[in-house]
Amino acid sequence: MMFRFNKLLIILLLFFCMSCTQKKQQPFSFVQLSDPQLGMGGYEHDVNTFKLAVKQINELKPDFVIICGDLVHHRSDSSFADFLEIKKDFKMPCYLVAGNHDIGKVPNNTSLTYYREKLGKDYYQFNHKGYSFIVTNSLLWKNNIEKESEKHYKWFKETVRKSNPKIVVGHFPLYIKNYDEQEEYFNIPPGKRMELLNLFADNNVKAYLSGHKHEVLINNYKNIQLVTGETTSKNFDKRPMGFRYWEVSPDTMKHYFIPLQNFQLNKVKH
Question: What is the number of domains present in the chain?
């Protein structure tokens, strides 16, 4: 009798745990916006396209927005202030990623402190409906910055090994075409890249989102989606300006390109 009772109790506990997991992983949507980079395509142009993106995203009502770095083209008090003034019009949370134009091609203590004082943390983690989002500083993967890179990598390894399916976000793509390609300006060094890809594969990372390339890159490594999105400043591949809209459910993760609407380039001074 006691054996049957214990067996029934175990079944009920398993059912309860499965139910909790299902409840945690609810469907949601978010926007991946890349390189608003005020000043890249002409300052007034980029201010206007960023404003238009904010308006359009508010109409879509995603759960939140992630901006994948290069918030401005030339970092300064005034450009960061302009960026933040537009950003505050989002009607949902907006999470920022540090790009090379925000903290320097080779960051140092001065540039990192300046970013952190003006915009907040350059790497952090947040949870949403059963998913963990890990926002990284990919410049600390691209470069070996004394103390900072080691501290960042230690934090990342500890964070990525925690439970929940994960989406990792950075500025630099890990690679452009092939996972074993040589290092260039737009990607991460091969040694660090493979360390990261192995960590992703071993720890339930579902996607890595990035910017920086000003071209669309859609790759897949061991069923991990690697997506570099369109910008709202200037696209080198001549694609329309816009952003990626993601829909996430317990079973699927899909993304779609949404172009900016009602924007005429000939009405903007460059």
Answer: 1
